[in-house]
Structures
1.
Amino acid sequence: MSSSTPPSATTTSRPAPETTPVGRALQRIQREHPNLSTTVAAIKTLTECIQISKAATLSELIKDLEAQADILKLFRHQNVAIVAACDLFSRFLRDSHHDVFNLDATKERIIAAGNDLVDKSDETRAAIARHAAKHIIQEDDVVLVHSYSRVVVRALIHARRENTRFKVIICEGHAGRGRALGHATAAELRAHGIPTALIPDTALGYVIDTVSFILVGAEGVVQNGGLVNGLGTFTIALVAKSASKPFYVMAESYKFVKLFPLTQYDLPFHDPALIDVSGSDASSSRLPGADYTPPPFITLIVTEYGAFSPGRVADVMIAMTH
Amino acid sequence: MSKDVSLQVDAFIARLRRRQTVGSFNVAIESAKILHNVVSGSRWPDQDHLIDLLQHVGRRLIAAQPGEIAVANAVRRVLNIVREEATKLPLPENPKEFREQLRAGVKQAILDMIDDFLHSGPHIASQALQHVHPNDRVLTFGWSKTVLEFLKEAGKLRKFQVMVVEAAPACSGHQMAVELATAGIDTTLVTDAAVLALMPKVDKIILGAHAVTADGGMIATAGSLLVAEVAKACKRPIIVCSGMYKVSPLGLMQQQEVLSLNSCPNGVYDFEEGDVVERVEVVNPHYDFVPAELISVLVTNMGTHPPSYMSHMLDDVYSKLDLVI
Amino acid sequence: MKWTTIHPAVLNLGLQYAEWGIAGGNARCTAMLNTFARVIADYTTPPHQTLSRHLTSVVSRHVDFLNTTRALSTSMKAAVRFLKHEISVLSPDLPDEDAKAGLIAQMRSFVEAKIDFADKAIVKETLDKGKIRPGDVILTYGFSSVVNKLLLKAHARKIPFRVVVADARPKFEGQRLLASLVAAGIPCSYCLLTAVPSLTAPRPTKVILGASAVLANGSIMSRAGTASVALLARMARAPVIVCAENYKFTETLRLDAFVWNELGDSEELSAAAATMPVTSTGGHVSVLHNWRDIASLKLLNLHYDITPAEDVTLIISESGFIPPSSAYMVFKEIEQNVSLA
């Protein structure tokens, strides 16, 4: 795929992605399969693009896919998850360069790889959940979680099924608009009989000393082993470090993404205006849905291959690109 | 004021402006002497008028060279002296008698204060053995007369090593190194660039100050903050030696004016091609502000204290009425 | 030509090194290889000797000589390892002239690949991935050839940014960078290391540095003063980017900057620099002019320091973006691809 400057999520010269066919396809897939993470949904979308592509040669196909990926990257919401999918897809393309002359066979191979990932995504998530339940969640632990994360909920339910006795504190994840997703987490955990407290984000500093560890999901894991995840994650990581609490991330390996943010504001979805000081009520509208947590704040990243330090994950990513 | 005293004041203001009188020690003493002569050589009906007069003269002195904080310190000290002496005297029946007693009391107190200033260095140096131990590896930055006397005093009885950071562009550390070595102290002169590399080989840092602020921070030769941050990163203690005449009752926010005067008189770049000069902004501050949290201990002529204690000591020598002159 | 003597070109090179006429990892390495090319061109194998073994000893002798003029840099050591390896794998059947021509071509390729191409790749990757942004205030220190190339290219791409060049005694290498940037029309500020904590208007948004070597634990060996800049950057929450070609990655581990460092000439500190009055009286005779007569006085002129990995946000080489913790892994990978270009 192209290594050109990442298309800014705020440029006005490009079409709004939700008005494009590929953008609408992504949204449709997400509606039809709400259990898929955004990365997987984007992979599925790009796989479909291959199926309907009218390209006659391999290089045309690559160009076509690059164009579709570039459009998808214009989505500001879950931007990094989409970039991860596009990265992964470009690896599929690169790995299938063997059969240059048989386009159909190549397309088959890539579609198969994409579908394989999508089909296995549920089991991948389950494997991570099982690992966390077995090795991380211990008897009498107080687990702090943030907002809503499918893999975290999965892990907690699994631990409950294994009859581990533990409690959960949920930071509701209020992002200034809409309902805080922590409520959905609370409902689901309580339905499984897990003792749960839902707290406003403001109470984090107050409760942190009662917590055993923090468990979060991931929108993406970046090149240095850092984390991009729902807005508020970094705040929790800061408090956790200050209180010497372990901070664990659960992330499928397809969420590894070739981005290297230098600062909080060095990701594609950053809006330089940052906050709207015009005084209107939508004052948080320029804030992104995600933030960046640098590696020193992360204790372990749990993947389907096991739990690694951010440094090990960074090593793995270097090996992946060579 | 008498014409003679008025001329003296003008002459001193000129010397301050032209930087002919420089350095906290010199300006503190000269300011105090001038104010002594003002008290002595002028007519004033009562203490309020005396205070007004001293404030008026004081403002002019301060305006002559705002970067010399010791001037304002001396002015405030003298004002406090007047207030204190006035309360000590019994209410007289005779205003003239009161005036003369006040005049005498204030003059003597100012002379005592000047004496105090003159003995600052030796008083500080007398505490050296508490802080410099045998085989210590000490690091210091640039030139400081106070620190020099401090280390020389320690050097009379103890063997230790000193690393002097040269403090470009003025490189005042060169003179410091020569004087320490000449006094028989094992001295190594090093470049500013080597500070971080050497810090693990240092036991403590001893610095001089241009001025100390009310919160226990200090204003010192540019580069002091670099040394202090490196010391903090390597967890080495910083000892600051400073006479009380350098301690200001103002906190940093009010000292912004001093820092904004930042322009080191020594040039930093001798551009060969003339047009490069015009196109480059040269940043060459004279001073740094080192915050109190980087300083472990302040050694003054009134003893050794943590920076947080500064505000208590200020109450003894300054009046809150004189924060704005 | 007697091979027990040193080739005049190498003598001359040694002198230039000693006088710092040629300084900086890339420049010293390139000059050395260019000079060795001449040595090899002039070389003839003595009778009853094999080129491979004898030439290796000649190279070693010249390297040892250069080391006495000024300690070899990491870049030079990498080049010497490469050259010795190339000599050692020469086929014994190859005629001498062909062998020599081959070695000379290899050395040129080394420079082209390890320096020229590497720098181009570093610059491209940095700029393509948007690591220099409009409005950036970039703090750098001393002179680094790759940082120079990067900033010039960023400017050529019409990205508006400002540079603050920090510098220090005794070498003032930053002035060389400053001259280059100013000539290209880049808005610049200049200050000494002592002024770096005072840089507030405008405040640097990032720091970009060069390196002499990248050590096994991700720490950086560079010109003395670099570590201070990186420390201050971390405290000011500005990211620190280090640009270093792959051939500067080593498996050495150095935990402090003191024991092994290169000591410079003490006289340099005492020489009255033309750029500033040294004495408080404003005279131009150095206060230190008779320092040798003062028994208790030593002058210490350290050339390098070590920037710990935690003060570095990102290392950029021709292999791409590397977190400092992955430096050793990258070194191992590079080692496995010994022959290049």
Note: Residues 233 and 239 of chain C are 7 Å apart (CA to CA).
2.
Amino acid sequence: MSGLKEIIQEKISREPFAGNGVLKDFSEKGMELFREQGIPTVKHEEWKYTRIAAVLNSDFNYAANTSSVTKADVDAVRLPGHETANELVFINGIYHAEFSNIRSSSDALELLPLSEAVKGEYKKLVESNLGHSAGYHPDGINALSNAFAYDGLFIEVKKNKVPEHPLYCYYINDARSSSVLSQPRTLIHVGVNAQVVLVEEEITLGSSDSFINRVSELVVEENANVQLYKIQNEDVHSSCVKTTHVRQVGKSKVHSVTLTLNGGMIRNNLNFILEAPGCESHMYGLYCVKGTTHVDNHTIVDNVKPHCFSNELYKGIIDEQATGVFNGKIFVRKDAQKTNAYQSNKNVLLSENASVNTKPQLEIFADDVKCSHGCTIGRLDEESMFYLRARGIGEQEARALLLHAFAAEILNQIECKPIREYADKIISERLGFEL
Amino acid sequence: MLSIKNLQARIEEKEILKGINLDIKPGEVHAIMGPNGSGKSTLASVLAGRSSYEVTGGEVEFMGKDLLELSPEDRAREGLFLAFQYPIEIPGVSTTNFIKTAVNETRKYRGEEPLDAVQFLKIMKEKMKLVEIDQTLLSRSLNEGFSGGEKKRNEIFQMAMLEPHLSILDETDSGLDIDALRIVAEGVNKLRDGKRSFLVITHYQRLLDYIVPDFVHVLYKGKIVRSGTKELALELEEKGYDFIKEELGERVDA
């Protein structure tokens, strides 16, 4: 096998576009755009620092809906707190009910294949929301996901319901016998007055190359409350592009924390489209990477309506040869008066070879708004180090203490306790921090 | 306890200390006064081991060891304490955990068992009373959002917890109102036990009304130009630093 286009071609010839009507058209349009655009190169402004084509040039098998994954394999990777969570298991991009545990009742939480959802009572919802992210990412990667969207999952959090169990989503690639490219796709609708906690993690089994191109689109209704936690902690063979696209269509609150703790080439797209007055969005990110990991966080806040509030804080600790990219866009449309939008990106570089590219981008078309942005790139503060050492705390411990404190500001934003403790443990071990 | 001989130091290309000589014996309180820019804070920083200063000559012996050979943390563990002029705010590090780490790292260095939570809490409560510091302050992030007075009180509290042989107070009185000054000074006085020594660096005589020194030295242009007893401080207060300049034969602008 050679290029990705050929791989995709082969997949299509084996399994022609499934679904019918809407979904079939949608997939075919995605395929068409992918053929036209191809994999983005560094000439593409949005992919300037992330050579995704280099990763996708290696030989991948397009994930087949068959794999030798067993329940024991899944059990081995479950996250802390899973005993009381709704667990959604995707293997090679496809949702597998047999490994999943849905603990909430069906009057609070409903799961349907997208190909089903597009037919019944959710038809209109799916039609008007599936692929909404494409407007913000008109590139080949997003198009490729659209081409295979018929394998996706639709999740409905029913109105006035608060599923007491968080949703843990595991996106598992089985790369034990060969390299795997997979494309999990979800559309999540959070109903009026509903609340949900979503935890997502990418996991690769085996040591062949793994690539996940994941698109999750969320539609958040009036007075809904959503917590979104993403964790990635993989080895250098595992790369991914994750797009989380959140439309806040009613006055609602969304709180997001994105953690990147290692991997190959990782691109996190996070979009908030604030389409109702009074929306609130909190976006936190922490990347603590080493080795040759490349992590790229691209975020967009699009203020369409007035009186919305968004706050964004991304922090990076970059060691060895690892590289980071932060690109934060804030759009304030003409009608979005009284917008409050804040953005900050802070980086600590721990080695001579570590690097980061950070770029805030504000496009403001309204005249009565408060927006701010700022970024820092530096080493550990010498004055703080000296203060700690002058109290008898050794250099290594002082360093660990300061780095942990730097990371803790983000970790403390994880309200889901078992996940916060899990992430804290990984970070503490990484930094040699103990208290 | 501390013996400084002909100490010279610079920051970047600028010579600041030009041959300091000073001996401090156990139980003594020395005050160093001097106009702005005379090198007072540099002396404190060099003794504590701040790396931005380069020692270009001289020797410092502390508790029988070559102080200048020790890392900042080992100087602290040997019993040297610097109360910072501008204590650093460190968000995300709780004051209590910080002090516990500092105390136990020092104990480890001295071959002592670390304090457990109960022992630590007991000692902490005693020392809290000493400097009239509040529990809520200690559960907050280190110095974050503390007022000037709270920061200085926290320095003295740390000093009380670490029980150093020699404490250097670097302009601890700056930015303090009279009540805060009194509390800080009382904290220091309660730690005076005839064995611990103090080096009090100050611009004003005011602090020395509360912490009465055994010796007063005047630092000017990187050298100690006069030494005396506490009366010297009063003389300085009365005449200003100009009389030192006159004595040195410098022209004093009217």
Note: Chain A has one domain: 4-431.
